[in-house]
Design brief:
The protein has about 750 residues and is α+β, with helices and mostly antiparallel strands. Helices cover about 40% and strands about 25% of the residues. The chain has 24 helices and 28 strands. The strands form six sheets. A six-stranded antiparallel beta sheet has the order 7-6-11-10-9-8. Strands 2-1-5-4-3 form a five-stranded antiparallel beta sheet, with helices on both faces. The protein has a five-stranded antiparallel beta sheet with strand order 13-12-16-15-14, sandwiched between helices. A hairpin with a 5-residue loop joins strand 15 and strand 16. Helix 21 packs across helix 22. The chain is elongated, with a radius of gyration of 55 Å.
């Protein structure tokens, strides 16, 4: 009980986070806290538990503080008067008295009060507590009644009587207590000293005083100590005794009474635990508390208030902090106005604002406060607390930024629950699809289906999402108007803190225009490739005409001979038949030449299929050989056997190879000596690709020109447009491959072409 005043003083001055928190704290301790004017006539505060303890007297006390003493029993009034005299000379005091209740019962109260002074030493306020001690007084009265019943038999008698010899050993007991204390007294003390009956528990300073008293053979009153029993329990005793002398005045020992105070000690320990728990609650709050005394113009700040603003102590804060000055300029007007409304009208204070900290930085705080006033009178105090909400404000700001970003996003954003029902769409979604948010809320995104997608796409999408994986793809959808459009879609599962899928979020980009542009570009590229093939045929026209003239001239000559053989008598049918076979052979030869030219030159949609590149090389050489023979070019082949097939567009790769071969043929025109063009094939890059090389023995290329060769409109030929190799590289790269050139040792150039085995159909 000795710590009630220090424990409850912060509550009396409202050092709690809020009125609700103060009420809950005070409601847990069965005590009344009040604050009065220095003369005790004006009530400034009364805690919420007053009605519970005082009943109707609490309401009367609100009108007149002295009303709390109106029903004090007459025998106890002198003690109140003594307390008043004591307060006149000292700043604190304590008294216990009886109060007559309305139901006729008697209530014992312990009142403690303390006079607080201002900084200049003038009386400021009187704070106090009222605690119900009826139970303990009844226990004490019961003990006193017991003492009175036995006093006629033994002076100072209490729970039991004891007597010691001159060596302080117990020699007699009478009326030992019940329970563990009684068993200890009866079994352990006879013939022993008080401190020899078990593990002795007594404060060192108390024990030292008691030993000195015994040494002087003086009486002692209420010496309290404890004993730890072998089974682990503790019992506590209060002992009073007086010395015993014989007729000659020799000291013979002590006699006295002992009292079992174990129950009282346990009550006191429980009370101390409650007090400590209350202090922990007050210290554990994360809020800073203030208490502004309007009349005195003085403000109390809790230590945590100072720490929130970066100050090391309350004194440092009080010296340097002024609320209005510390407010951020943007928040000052609103916060000061709210404070003035609280002080003038008694309204609650509830504001969020920034305060400047000791280091000059600003942090966000949420302040809550109340005005304390007399009924119908002016505000006397303004109490409240602040909480640091900087992190919360930062999170709110980030959330607003994200919200703005989502609202203004150039892509459609859709959020659904785990069943796929729409919970949110951003404005871009509405712009693209033509649906309003109200029209799609609660519906499934399948309302956009066009019916033109492979159902397997949706199966794969949901398999990925339900397994917690992201899905990406392109969907052909339909708007509200019925118009079809393409979207590039990425869908993410949204997970809770425990890893459970709670929602799905889709980012949908309208790529219809991109698709159309890509289609037009693909068509343009194919047109360029087609024109390049036609140009190649044009450049080879003379050689092709010469090549065709040979079988056509043979057909004409063989026809004349056959006609002559048939016109003789008798007709030479055998010779005519042989000539017919020769004519057919030459016609097939001419037809094959024309077929190859037609296949190479015709316009067709790009299509990739598994192709034997060695066979393709030989087919291209047959076509190029028409012109190569006129330049007396010899082809050398070094083709790796059993190459795996590669998925390519046959016509496009034919065009690339023909262009490379023609470049090699043209590079060797006008050269003296042997003219050989080598073609090789092999597996490359860890057997993941096929590499083809076309090597000539021409004049060769400097390194700089070898780099520029693939630049559009760059040509080493006086009549060339410089598009063939640029188109060829574009075709190869579209297949995921590479095309480059380099000089040979000893002269000539080698073109290298790599095509990956994994190329798939477009």
């Amino acid at each position: 009980m000795g710590n009630w005043q220090s424990t409850l003083q912060p509550i009396a001055t409202h050092e709690t986070a809020s009125e609700d928190e103060a009420s809950s704290l005070l409601g847990a301790i069965d005590a009344v806290v009040y604050a009065l004017s220095p003369d005790g006539r004006e009530l400034r505060y009364l805690s919420p538990g007053a009605e519970k303890l005082l009943g109707g007297a609490a309401q009367r006390m609100r009108q007149d503080p002295e009303a709390r003493h109106a029903t004090v029993l007459a025998p106890d009034r002198p003690r109140l008067e003594a307390l008043a005299r004591h307060l006149a000379e000292n700043d604190g005091g304590e008294v216990e008295y009886r109060l007559a209740q309305e139901d006729g019962s008697i209530l014992w109260l312990r009142e403690r009060c303390r006079l607080q002074r201002s900084a200049d030493g003038l009386p400021w306020r009187l704070i106090g507590t009222l605690v119900d001690v009826t139970l303990s007084r009844r226990l004490i009265d019961s003990l006193r009644d017991s003492e009175a019943r036995f006093r006629s038999l033994v002076e100072l008698s209490s729970d039991w009587y004891w007597q010691q010899d001159a060596e302080f050993r117990f020699i007699e007991f009478s009326g030992a207590p019940a329970g563990p204390a009684g068993r200890y007294v009866n079994a352990s003390l006879l013939g022993r000293r008080r401190w020899e009956g078990g593990a002795f528990i007594c404060a060192d300073e108390v024990w030292a005083v008691h030993q000195a008293t015994l040494a002087r053979h003086e009486p002692f009153q209420d010496f309290e100590y404890g004993i730890e029993l072998p089974e682990g329990d503790r019992v506590y005793f209060s002992s009073s005794g007086e010395p015993v002398y014989d007729e000659r005045g020799n000291f013979r020992g002590y006699r006295g009474v002992g009292r079992d105070i174990t129950a009282r000690r346990r009550m006191e320990e429980a009370l101390r635990e409650n007090e400590a728990r209350l202090l922990l609650v007050l210290e554990a709050t994360t809020e800073g508390v203030w208490d502004y005394d309007v009349r005195a113009g003085d403000t109390y700040f809790s230590l945590h208030f100072a720490e929130l603003l970066g100050y090391g102590s309350q004194a440092e804060l009080k010296k340097n902090f002024r609320f209005a000055d510390a407010l951020h300029p943007e928040d000052r007007a609103a916060a000061v106005a709210a404070q003035e409304r609280t002080l003038s009208q008694g309204l609650r204070f509830d504001q969020t604002y920034r305060l400047r900290c000791r280091d000059g930085s600003y942090r966000w705080f949420h302040g809550r406060g109340i005005a304390v006033a007399e009924p119908g009178g002016p505000v006397l105090r303004f109490v409240g607390a602040i909480a640091d909400v900087t992190a919360q404000k930062a999170a709110e700001l980030e959330l607003r930024r994200l919200s703005v970003a989502i609202e203004q996003s150039p892509v459609s954003i859709v959020i659904t629950d785990i069943a796929g029902n729409i919970e949110y769409v951003n404005p871009r979604f509405c712009q693209v699809t033509g649906y309003s948010f109200l029209e799609v809320r609660g519906r499934n995104p399948r309302l956009l289906k066009s019916g033109q997608m492979d159902p397997q796409v949706y199966v794969e999408m949901w398999n990925a999402l339900t397994q917690g994986r992201q899905w990406s793809g392109e969907l052909h959808n339909r708007k509200k108007s019925g118009e079809y459009f393409w979207e590039a879609v990425r869908i993410f599962p949204l997970l809770s803190d425990t890893g459970k899928i709670t929602h799905f979020m889709a980012l949908r980009e309208d790529i219809t225009l991109k698709k159309e542009v890509a289609a037009r570009e693909a068509l343009r590229q194919e047109e360029m490739r087609h024109h390049a093939r036609l140009a190649a045929m044009g450049e080879m026209a003379a050689a092709l005409a010469h090549e065709l003239n040979q079988p056509l001239a043979a057909i004409a000559n063989f026809s004349d001979v056959a006609l002559h053989a048939l016109s003789t008598e008798p007709a030479n049918l055998g010779q005519a038949g042989e000539l017919a076979r020769l004519i057919k052979s030459q016609a097939l030869r001419a037809g094959e030449i024309v077929w190859r030219i037609r296949e190479f030159s015709k316009k067709q949609a790009p299509r990739r299929e598994a192709t034997d590149l060695n066979l393709l090389i030989r087919d291209v050489v047959r076509l190029a050989d028409i012109a190569a023979r006129h330049s007396e070019i010899v082809f050398d082949f070094d083709l790796a056997p059993e190459l795996p097939e590669v998925a390519v567009d046959r016509v496009q790769i034919e065009q690339v190879l023909l262009n490379l071969i023609r470049n090699g043929v043209e590079a060797m025109e006008g050269m003296t000596g042997e003219r050989r063009l080598s073609l090789t094939s092999r597996l490359a890059e860890g057997e993941t690709a096929v590499q083809i090389a076309v090597s000539d023995r021409g004049c060769g290329l400097p390194n700089r020109i070898a780099v520029d060769l693939f630049t559009p409109f760059f040509s080493t030929k006086s009549q060339g447009l410089g598009m063939g190799l640029a188109i060829s590289r574009g075709i190869v790269e579209a297949h995921g491959g590479k095309l480059w050139a380099g000089p040979n040792e000893g002269g000539g150039t080698t073109f290298q072409l790599i095509l990956p085995l994994g190329t798939s159909n477009d």
